[in-house]
Amino acid sequence: MITYDCLYIAGSWAAPSDPELLDIRSPHDQAVIGRAAQARPADVDRAVAAARAAFDEGPWPRTAPAERIAAIRRLNALREADAERIADLVSAENGSARWFTRAGQPGLTRQAEAYLRAAEAFGWEETPESASESAPESAPAVRTVVRREPVGVVAAVIPWNSPFSAAMAKIVPALLAGNTVVLKVSPENSLSMGLLADLLDRAGLPEGVISVLPADRQTSEYLVSHRDIDKIAFTGSTLAGRRIAAIAGEQLKRVSLELGGKSAAIILPDTDLGRAVPGLKFASLLNNGESCIAQTRVLAPRSRYEEVVTALKDLVESLKVGDPADPDTFIGPMVRRDQQQRVRDYIELGIREGARLVTGGPQVPPGLENGNYVTPTVFADVDNSFRIAQEEIFGPVLVVIPYDDEDHAVRIANDSEYGLSGGVWSADETHALEVARRLRTGTVTVNGAPISFDGPFGGHKASGIGREYGMAGLAQYTEYKSVTLPASGV
After folding, report:
1. Among 81, 193, 208, 461, which one is least packed by beta carbons within 10 Å?
2. What domains appear along the chain, each with residue ranges and CATH number?
3. Cβ distance 184 to 220 under 8 Å?
């Protein structure tokens, strides 16, 4: 059993204000796998005060970008060396299948390397060309220096479903830009995020630069409302994002939000289903369906509708559901009992709405009653107005929606309050790109191509504000400053 009885505050392990430890239970069988301290408002005050002092008076914001880049390279190397332990811990805490957590480790490396490339090419301080030729003769000649400076103290708040990816997507660019960070993580991830704190400690960041606080929602709201927080970076539900946006707006804090999704996969009539359906296994059902980018609305042409439905039925029924530590398992348990019940409630709702239950259902898979398991489910004959087609279920539930022609498919795909991700499948990738351009969503993959960490990632509409990854993600943690000098000056 793993125990973290201290909190990582301001670069060192410290006794929590509340000594009671939280039992961390396996979603597979409810066994206690660890115990961990949880942060309270008094701990937040300590972490924020240290971050404020480190930003206002410490060396980190004033170090050269090359030094910060070197520190993040050390952190990334430490994480790579512990990749297997990280994957196993996340599987144990979340119920994420071992294939998913292991496959995600190289992705974490690519994510960090994209940020590092961006930092090396970033215009930290530039002198743009003078516009004196177009200026009036009476205007004084000046030289302008444009700087990109850190925002300040960042509250980074992440969800439980993919903790290392969400944490690194925020703390890496924030630190590269010279900010100080208080990372608030979910109680469910207290063990894996304790390991992240260990790695940060070994990376040798200056005192006060970063804290890692597992905490509940009330403590999270206390953190984002704190007067000494300059920017909020949040990943989570749209409901929580609306609340955070309101707090940020009232206090005029900088904010970036990566929120929910209900992404559509458009299967064009010329699609090779032998390629597309195995691709949807990953695009639609990754991480037990507990993924904001999952393509859970499958749009199929009427001319091939039953063919698509049958292929998805065969796919879903072939997937092994069970112990996430088993290398043959594709779908593990939901993270908590309430999440399991939420998904089962949505399946029952779909039946009441009149959708055709193709496979699955609200029953728990036989022999897995002790865990938070859900039977993977496919619904057909779904109208896009149904709640199961409009609301984020966050579980292994697919809805198959028929369309008449390409324009109709695009209208259905865009008929959602969300706009985070999506996919287009076609034998003609040039044409698929044309369709992708018409979708109101932040990311579109063609024929299952992986998301690029060099390109910006984020949502349209209720799926968020701002972008992560690469140059765009790094820029979210900086402020512009313009300094003008007489043209004759030094």
Report:
1. 81
2. 2-259+464-483 (3.40.605.10), 264-458 (3.40.309.10)
3. yes
